[in-house]
Amino acid sequence: MELKEISLDDRIKDILRKHGISSLYPPQVAAFPFVLKGENVVLSIPTASGKSLVAYIAIVNKLIHNRGKALYVVPLKALAKITNNTLFVINITQHL
Hints:
Layout: H1 10-18, H2 26-35, H3 51-66, H4 77-90
């Protein structure tokens, strides 16, 4: 689904577009109504299908609307390194 069709804060859409993301997978879109309200969600979808992006968007949405801090916990050291590098590249704070 194209970003323009999704109900997300324009600042989040701008961040996604800046990093080459113009559309999202159906499971990601289905999760947004819940994660954007701060509800807990379990996404059981294949590897490389966008689970982390859903979490990042939920975090950025919360920071945009409520400020504060976020803690993103991952179970593996390798995944933590990838996540850190990804969030560093995105550098969400410069967009808030």
